[in-house]
Amino acid sequence: MNINAFQDSYPNDLAHCYGCGSLNEHGHQIKSYWEGDETVCRFTPKPYHTAIPGYVYGGLIASLIDCHSTGTAAAAMFRKENRPMDSLPPFRFLTASLKVDYFKPTPIDSVLELRAKVLEIKGRKVVVEVNLFAENVKCAHGEVVTVQMPDDLKV
Amino acid sequence: MNINAFQDSYPNDLAHCYGCGSLNEHGHQIKSYWEGDETVCRFTPKPYHTAIPGYVYGGLIASLIDCHSTGTAAAAMFRKENRPMDSLPPFRFLTASLKVDYFKPTPIDSVLELRAKVLEIKGRKVVVEVNLFAENVKCAHGEVVTVQMPDDLKV
User: Fold this and answer.
1) Distance CA B20, CA B36 (A)
2) Average pLDDT over residues A76-85
3) Global pTM value
4) Chain B contact for A66, CB < 8 A?
5) Taken in order A2, A6, A12, A13, is the CA torsion positive or negative?
6) Smallest CA–CA separation between B35 and chain A, in Å?
7) Taking 50 as the threshold, does the pLDDT of residue A1 lie above it?
8) For B123, which of A71, A119, B140, B151 is 20 to 30 Å away at the CA?
């Protein structure tokens, strides 16, 4: 089990994402970890991440689901190859599609817990399912199709 | 044709959303307008809204699609009732589900244009389709199921 967050192993040139890049000082800087066969990310919204007062806005939920899924996809590929996440070459995934179902308003004064599972790995594609909880209540569900970043996009 | 943005007509107690509330000083404060039977929102990303350097992160795209769609849903209901958006009672929509397909990386140094159409109005539900363009190239597509906010959530 890797005690570092997935995102802490991203190479510096891929660590600028607003959602998950450790080098983006304006961003969310989410941290994701293995817990058994699930991956977990806990995030505390800021008071201004609101939709209607008291509740989290849906765009934040979508963002967290998105970036936790791309991190999970990378972690799953490293695990499949039985090598640590800071080994080379790196895996980095982009989102091809994102589907979020909002079951109920998500209270903003709580720690959001995202728990993800890998549904499918096929070639360069990894499909991830995420449930988002607030105060142990499932508030949203996401399914994310990620694809390994094409070489010609590397920066 | 209403020359004010949809969001400028939201009542103050519903104008705090990070994506679209005119009273959220930290937020995106998007503005949406009718153009014929489509609604349009133009948004300039900040440099830090990045995924990998040079491109917009997917969470921002999801957020813009989300809030432009709830605004479009409200506008469509007012139009259906043939009354201005600042008339009472207000319509305010929440997102039940959000599906975004990312076709290609979205360049960050451009004005993003979101163009939406109402696919269906049925009771309290409005389904909205959104295409997102950068430099006239379609980079993402969204389909959003919105529902009218329940009375017991009113703040």
Assistant:
1) 22
2) 95
3) 0.95
4) yes
5) positive
6) 25
7) no
8) B140
Could you read off the pLDDT of B50-98 as tens digits, one per residue?
Answer: 999 999 999 999 999 999 999 999 999 999 999 999 899 989 999 999 9
- Interatomic CA distance for residues A9 and A71, integer angstroms: 10
| Averaged pLDDT of chain A | 94
CB pair distance less than 8 Å for A98 and B98: yes
Single-letter amino acid, residue B95: T
Name the residue with tokens 């891929």.
Answer: A14
Task: Tell whether A14 is within 8 A of chain B (Cβ).
Answer: yes
Contact A85, A1 (CB under 8 A): no
Residue A144's nearest CA partner among A91, A66, A84 is A66
User: CA A69, CA A32: separation in Å to the nearest integer?
Assistant: 9
- Strand locations in chain B, DSSP E? 32-35, 38-43, 93-102, 112-122, 125-134, 137-148
Residue type, B143: E
Helix (H) or strand (E) holding A122: strand A112-122
Can you count the helices (H) and strands (E) in chain A?
1, 6
Structure token digits, residue B127: 């389904």
Share of chain A above pLDDT 70, in %: 96
* Cis before A89 (ω within 30): yes
Cβ proximity of B78 and B32 under 8 Å: no
